[in-house]
Amino acid sequence: MPPPPGAGDRASWIKLKVVDDESGNPLPGVVLSVTQPNGKAFDFTTRPDGAVEVHGIDPGECSVTCDLTGATIADTHDFVVMADRPTWTQSTESSDAAAGAGSAPADSNALPRTQSASRSGVRIANVEAHKVSTGETLQSLAESNGLTWQQLAQFNWGTSVPDEINKKLHDEVGCTQKAADGVNYRFDDADSPGIVRIPTRWSVQGLVTDQTHTIRVQAADRDSAGNGYIRLYVFDADGQPIADAACTIKSKTGQVVFEGVTDAQGRLRKDGVDFDDFTLLMDGNERVVPSVAYNDEWVDVLMPRPGRIRLLVLDASDQPLADAEFTLADNKSGRAFSGRTDAEGRIRRDGVELNDYKLTVGSFDRIVPAVAYDDEWIDVFSTGSPARSDASDASDNPEMRLAA
Question: Where are the domains of the chain?
Fold first, then answer.
């Protein structure tokens, strides 16, 4: 961004401050590469107060990044956000606002679990806590992120020696399956905790001069145990949030880690879990869901509702009313859908609430229930044909009746 007209006769400044996201503690010793508005780049190291200040520069916008050469977990901070306040306070406030005035406060687990102590680190990166899966290898993970397998191993375990890497894969990643060579471990869906951290280059552009910018980070070497988050947004086949629904979340060992209900936006929150896969149980359905590394990283979960519509519409002669227009409306929510009966006079729809529904065919309507089982059909009789698209007079159609 070029400096504004007339700006050449004045100098500007910029201040960058690196702090721990949870505690707010300043982080000294971080080497930041700052590119000034004139395109010149210089390295600056944060002071004991976690800040660097650059004076006598042109007005405009700066960018900042860090060098990843030789990076290890021990000397790397994981970037969180550019913000003056901790992300956990922002997350809590946004949740309260979304729920509306007078709602219950956000889960107290959203608060920081511990106050992070000051720690050393000379660089900042974007660090992904990656859950390994079958078919992946250390080399494929590295190459897909612009790294060599040696660099990825060095970052995670401080070694690039194959025998030492294999020991780390077994002891720390939980690998148990050997590759075709019978020597090296390969990744598998069942590996527990199954976490490899992947660093990628971090940079921020558009930092306006004459301002202070706060860089919030967290430890890249945090343990996987108890530092994961469950953040689920549960919705149905129509894309609608499933609100106020009772559910349970269990670990792989069957331990219950959460029992409660979804909020008004269909969300579930649980902090302090391991980095692993969990099972979400709701209305007789279950889904495997992962924990995540960040408290604002939400996972979408499609969860069908437990009810089914199974209606067989027949006339007085027990003949199916094929291709008949209908509308079904939920008696509680008012949500409705419409369609036409099939060639056998059937109406079927999955993923609905186990409520009563108002069935309208032509000018007639009846209350019919949703059912819980796929083969549980409700017969609906009429003494004449309901209105069809080619019907000339719907008033000729007698009233429908629900079979006993």
Answer: 1-127+197-222, 133-193, 228-302, 307-402
Whole-structure pTM value: 0.53
Query: What per-residue confidence (pLDDT) applies to 252?
Result: 83
Q: What is the pLDDT of residues 195-211, one digit of tens each?
A: 899 999 999 999 999 99
Q: Does residue 193 have a cis peptide bond before it, meaning omega lies within 30 degrees of 0?
A: yes
CB-based contact 51:15 (threshold 8 Å) = yes
113 pLDDT more than 80 = no
DSSP 81-98: EE-SS-HHHHHHHHHHHH
Q: What is the C-alpha radius of gyration for the chain, rounded to an integer number of angstroms?
A: 30
For residue 127, give every residue at least 6 positions away whose Cβ sits within 8 Å of its Cβ, in sequence order, or none.
Answer: 76, 78, 79, 197, 198, 199, 200, 220
Cα–Cα distance between 338 and 179 in angstroms, integer?
A: 54
Which listed CATH number (2.60.40.1120, 2.60.40.10, 2.20.25.90, 3.10.50.40) goes with 228-302?
Answer: 2.60.40.10
